[in-house]
Write a structure and sequence with these properties.
The complex is a heterodimer of chains A (249) and B (362). With 249 residues, chain A is α/β, with parallel strands linked by helices. Chain A has 9 helices and 9 strands. The chains are: A alpha/beta (249), B alpha/beta (362). Chain B: Keywords: Oxidoreductase.
Chain lengths: 249, 362
């Protein structure tokens, strides 16, 4: 039997990690760690995490890493990249940080085609603060602040992040939506998003559909069903913009 | 150190132009900014001068972003700064708080405008509370309140050094009058004045092989336990207080054997200084005290001046409704000197305003 391995770029003293059982962050961070290893970029990578559950990744990697405030990862990473263009900057955030409180930063970084790689984990709610409605909460989905289900008449429809970012960015940007249910595809997207930054092409953005059984109050099979049946139906998985040839659906 | 000015020269410039040249001469690598009056021309001059000296600029989407990009850039080891005013200063308190928490050597130039809210676009001294104690922290910042263009230039050069040497955020607190008016200025490269500039250094992107040559750098501004944060804040407080005597600057004139001490800061101190001269010429024994650093505050120096003067009264003059007054009172708690005030929020104060006030209370 093969021994389970962890990516070399993981920082072992902080393992096991602190995410809830069943949380998708561990899968995203494993994919990211493996990609960092495969590309051999650990020593030049700067990892910046947002506030929220993504914060638990602040000392996850054996990479130089920094924290900031909720929604402000994008400008902090922009500052680092503008000052030291040789560094590879990865911003890691949730849907609240990226699409709500930090949306102006995300939008304008995309418009300026900042040479950053941003990974946004979409689990349809604010996990760390106890499961409130997020910009990505599905219509009818119950959360702590939409206890009778999200009513789009009152609170709008879920933010389609990669779709709007694809509209804002030039052809040299990379934009994709992956999911923790398709691990190899997710790794491919993350690799492309990092390669795009390394080649100095432009803004690189990957939204990752992920799971939050704690706040969804779901068991294992319900969790996976919600991800594959509900979320992936609403949020199409695939590459929306790639400077490397034809997009993959 | 790259020479920017060459032979030291006299100029007749606006305060904003002085600020841009000072940042250049101090070796700032990159400016992040967002338009707001009255600081705009700092960006205008910077964007014109920067390419000649291979310096960078980014106009961000708002002041939050300008502040946070500065935080990122200094973490990467580059000298970075921003400039703002009024509501922009309000927004920047969020990133300035991060700088305070992570001890980031940022430099911010604040050209105060009227408040509250959008207020007026040119002048006030109403950003004293915000700049000294803004954010959800303890005011572990260094704030220089300048009065002349020469001081804008000198304290920006000094400010970069203080920030990078001690890693407390540094603010140059000016105002729209200083920003917009022209006056003589001597521009110089720091090395020509014997000023050695502190080299910046990275906190991230440290080079070498992680795991072999060194451990990863994990920068942190949020803590799991109350006790962890408690220890961090106490450590910062102890370091700040130990550093304060080296940082504190002030001006004092004619306080000994005076009947009244006039206290002012920033551009108002020029009127106060003139008023003291005029009052003395009329036989009224007035003295003058001006904190240059509002944080840390020259507390002991002011207490000593009060003791030496024998004055029964002190007049605090400011273009705000008591922000400076509150700062002074908390610093000299326990003194029994009677404190009068001349509060003129958002408007300029001239010599005669102070003279008339002094005559009305003596």
């Amino acid at each position: 039997m093969a021994t389970p391995t962890v990516p070399k770029s993981w920082y072992l003293p902080t393992k096991p990690h602190k995410f809830c059982p069943g949380c998708g962050h561990g899968i995203v961070l494993k994919a990211l760690g493996e990609v960092i290893d495969e590309m051999g970029i650990q020593d030049q990578t700067i990892f910046g995490c947002d506030i929220g559950c993504s914060l638990l990744s602040w000392n996850f990697f054996a990479c130089d890493s920094t924290q900031t405030h909720h929604g402000r990862t994008t400008p902090v990473m922009t500052g680092i990249k503008r000052a030291r263009p040789e560094l590879l900057c990865i911003g890691y955030m949730g849907d609240g940080g990226g699409y709500s409180i930090g949306s102006q930063h995300l939008l304008n970084a995309a418009v300026r085609n900042e040479k950053l790689t941003l990974v946004l984990v979409n689990n349809t709610n604010y996990g760390m603060t106890g499961g409130q409605m997020a910009p990505t909460t599905l219509p009818g989905q119950k959360t702590e602040t939409s206890p009778f289900g999200r009513n789009p008449e009152q609170t709008g429809y879920p933010t389609m992040g990669p779709e709007f970012i694809a509209q804002l960015t030039p052809d040299s940007a990379y934009v994709a939506r992956g999911t923790v249910s398709k691990y190899k595809q997710l790794k491919k997207y993350l690799r492309s998003a990092l390669r795009n930054q390394m080649e100095g092409n432009g803004f690189s953005f990957v939204e990752v559909l992920s799971t939050c059984p704690t706040n969804w109050r779901t068991n294992a099979s319900q969790t996976w069903n919600f991800l594959e049946d509900e979320m992936e139906k609403y949020f199409p998985v695939g590459e929306l913009k790639t400077p490397f040839g034809k997009g993959e659906k | 150190m790259q020479r920017v000015i060459g032979e030291s020269k006299r100029s007749f410039v606006t305060g904003n132009e002085a600020a841009a040249w000072a940042c250049m001469a101090a070796g700032a690598d990159i400016m992040f900014g967002y338009p707001i009056t009255p600081q705009n021309e700092i960006m205008h001059y910077w964007t014109r001068i920067a390419p000649q000296f291979e310096r960078e600029f980014l106009q961000t989407e708002d002041e939050l972003s300008a502040g946070f990009t500065v935080c990122g850039a200094v973490q990467s080891g580059k000298k970075a700064f921003t400039a703002t005013a009024g509501p922009g200063n309000v927004l920047m308190q969020e990133p300035f708080g991060m700088a305070e928490a992570m001890r980031l050597p940022i430099v911010g130039i604040i050209q105060q405008r009227g408040g509250p809210s959008s207020g007026t676009v040119i002048y006030s001294q109403q950003e004293v509370t915000l700049t000294t104690f803004g954010g959800n922290g303890e005011g572990h910042r260094i704030v220089y309140s300048t009065a002349t263009h020469q001081e804008i230039y000198d304290y920006i050069v000094k400010g970069f050094n203080v920030a990078w040497k001690h890693r407390f955020p540094v603010f140059i607190l000016g105002d729209g009058y200083q920003a917009k008016m022209r006056e003589p200025l001597e521009m110089y490269d720091p090395q020509d004045k014997g000023i050695e500039m502190v080299e910046p250094y990275p906190l991230l992107g440290l080079g070498g092989k992680i795991g072999t040559d060194r451990e990863p750098s994990h920068l942190c501004n949020i803590y799991s336990l109350e006790e962890e944060l408690y220890e961090v804040v106490l450590k910062f407080a102890a370091e700040y207080e130990a550093l304060a005597p080296q940082i504190i600057e002030y001006e004092e004139r004619e306080c000994d054997q005076s009947d009244i001490i006039i206290l002012a800061h920033g551009v108002v101190s020029r009127a106060a200084d003139d008023a003291v001269k005029a009052l003395r010429a009329q036989g009224i024994k007035a003295g003058y005290f001006r904190p240059i650093t509002l944080r840390p505050f020259p507390q002991q120096q002011l207490r000593d001046a009060i003791a030496r003067s024998g004055a029964k009264k002190m007049l605090i003059a400011e273009s705000a409704y008591g922000q400076f007054d509150r700062l002074v009172k908390q610093e000299i708690y326990g003194e029994t000197i009677s404190i009068e005030n001349l509060f003129m929020p958002g408007v300029g104060i001239i010599e005669n305003d102070i003279i008339n006030k002094v005559k009305s209370i003596l």
